[in-house]
Amino acid sequence: MLFKQQALLRQKLFVLGSLAIGSVLYLVARVGTLDRLQPICPVESRLAPPEPAQIPLRSLQFKRGLLHELRKGNATREQIRLHNLVQQLPRAIIIGVRKGGTRALLEMLNLHPAVVKASQEIHFFDNDQNYARGMDWYRGKMPFSFPHQITIEKSPAYFITEEVPERIFKMNSSIKLLIIVREPTTRAVSDYTQVLEGKERKNKTYHKFETLAVDGNTCEVNTKYKAVRTSIYTKHLERWLKYFPVEQFHIVDGDRLITDPLPELQLVERFLSLPSRISQYNLYFNATRGFYCLRFNIVFNKCLAGSKGRTHPEVEPSVLAKLQRFFHPFNQKFYQITGRTFSWP
Question: What pLDDT, on the 0 to 100 scale, is given for residue 289?
Answer without folding.
Answer: 76
